[in-house]
């Protein structure tokens, strides 16, 4: 969970091609002989599951175990959440493996991502900064170039851990939530990843473009100097994410990044622990959280994805906010019925009454995902909004769609 590695070498890419090809040819018998390929109902993503029969042949050299079926289901659910969050225009291919080896280093999960130089890519007519490397899957989505139509992201999970697989259950205090961790790793694969913590990388990643120090210096602009002075620039200091949409998701504030005392693979590519109770950023704090599920990317990650060049889905934004609520179990519904938070609409206004609830943050979004209000309220409040529109009202962990006449 708190490690991300990148593989940029050609060998990895060729390997990917070979395996994609074989996978295509053997899809019907794959289940019995190792790797299995599943496509989501929408057809937007294709998932390759490596199992014990692929030991030594999989993209990454780990000992593998066979997957519990429920674990595969959880991964597929995470892919559907992804499809509801990002505008996926070209089939996204992601590989997953289930390995006991990660337990030796007490890793929960690892993501391998291909990063590519984009020199000359402006010719495709896309908005891109050629000074930075991009995650290959983002380039694939941007240009649809068949060169990048392959498995650009591989995620390996620790098979020894106690996992919660079901979206209908919450993890116990000793469990990790597999849907949550899958989304976390995918977020790294989509570009929330820094090259500052990779000693052999000489080119900054697009995420690094938006990293600022306390003085407001953009670290990507003095990349070589920053890397050379890593102990003073990247350790024992505060660093922030300052890309436009990420900042907008944080009410105009830069997002504080995780900067441990010693530079590590978890440095900079996670959010500060202070967001551990903040649904907007909780998915990407460093380290592992037992007993907590965050089955959505959250506003911080979604804003950052946009800064990096991803397009968001807008029509399903409500689901993105709160996938748990949509499928909430009866216990949660009963709680709400006993102490209802009421949301009513008037002409050009939305009234929220918390009744007996503690003060809550109320965020109001347009259907297109633009935040129009974000306030902490107690008791009740009335928000004036432009009329004739549908809004998503989010209170705490719950969201509701309302029409304002
Ligand atoms: Zn991580």
Could you write a compact summary of the structure shown?
With 405 residues, this protein is α+β, with helices and mostly antiparallel strands. The protein folds into 2 domains: 6-308, no CATH class; 342-404, Immunoglobulin-like, CATH 2.60.40. It has helices spanning 10-25, 69-85, 136-143, 178-189, 223-228, 230-233, 244-249, 298-308, 317-321, 323-326, 330-338; strands spanning 3-6, 36-39, 45-50, 92-99, 109-113, 115-117, 133-135, 151-158, 163-164, 176-177, 211-213, 239-241, 255-256, 342-346, 349-353, 360-366, 371-377, 380-384, 389-395, 398-404.
Textual characterization of the structure:
The chain has helices at 10-25, 69-85, 136-143, 178-189, 223-228, 230-233, 244-249, 298-308, 317-321, 323-326, 330-338, and strands at 3-6, 36-39, 45-50, 92-99, 109-113, 115-117, 133-135, 151-158, 163-164, 176-177, 211-213, 239-241, 255-256, 342-346, 349-353, 360-366, 371-377, 380-384, 389-395, 398-404. With 405 residues, it is α+β, with helices and mostly antiparallel strands. It has 2 domains: 6-308, no CATH class; 342-404, Immunoglobulins (Immunoglobulin-like), CATH 2.60.40. The strands form 6 sheets. A 6-stranded mixed beta sheet has the order 1-5-8-4-3-2, sandwiched between helices. Zinc ion binds next to α4.
